[in-house]
Write a structure and sequence with these properties.
Layout: E1 2-5, H1 14-28, E2 33-37, H2 41-54, E3 59-63, H3 69-76, E4 84-88, E5 101-106, E6 109-116, E7 121-128, H4 131-139, E8 148-151, H5 173-182
Parallel strand pairs: 1-8, 2-4, 2-5, 3-4, 5-8
Antiparallel strand pairs: 6-7
Length: 183
């Protein structure tokens, strides 16, 4: 497994930088499919538009949890003789293996729900992935043979070892009320 770092320079938006790296990967990788891991649906849609404007010679498919099941299956289905670029959220990190992928482009970002204890409101926060998640994503490229992973951050970028426990992020208000009700 080869890992290549392509950090984003000059505040280039992630979708534009990702499209640049996809073009580079397509030039170097003529046979296998490319899996691009982005933090959310908005980034997937913007990257898909950038790739459509470039008229790349590959089928661009999206994959995320809000899609209907039949569209998810279609994104995972290989088309003989057609190289695919699959733009996905972290859903592919551990829940599914995408056949034919030998190249992963990892934006290094994830969107996680965070509960704000002071305000009592939850929200989605985009943040850097942890080292364990980055390694899991990298492994998606080498499932069926040699692969390459492009990481869209600097090699020197420090990453936390693991994600913080969910109990520290989650809204436990309903659990507290339920426990109080039970006495």
């Amino acid at each position: 497994m080869t890992t290549v770092y392509r950090p984003c320079a000059n505040r280039t938006p992630i979708d534009a930088h990702c499209a640049d790296v996809v073009s580079e990967a397509l030039n170097e990788n003529e046979e296998g499919d490319i899996l691009v891991i982005l933090p959310g649906v908005n980034e997937i849609e913007k990257t898909a538009r950038k790739l459509a404007a470039r008229n790349i010679d590959a089928l661009v498919a999206s994959l995320h949890g809000r899609m209907p099941l039949n569209e998810q299956r279609a994104a995972l289905t290989r088309v003989p003789g057609q190289q695919r670029v699959i733009l996905a959220t972290a859903i592919v990190e551990s829940s599914v293996t995408v056949a034919g992928v030998n190249c992963v482009i990892d934006a290094g970002l994830e969107r996680v729900p965070v509960y704000q204890h002071r305000s009592g409101v939850g929200r989605l926060e985009t943040r850097r992935v942890n080292r364990a998640s980055a390694d899991q994503r990298r492994g998606r490229a080498g499932r069926q043979g040699p692969g390459i992973c492009y990481r869209l951050w600097a090699k020197e970028q420090p990453l936390p070892a693991h994600r913080e426990p969910e109990v520290q992020q989650a809204d436990l208000t309903s659990l507290v009320f339920e426990l109080a009700r039970w006495g």
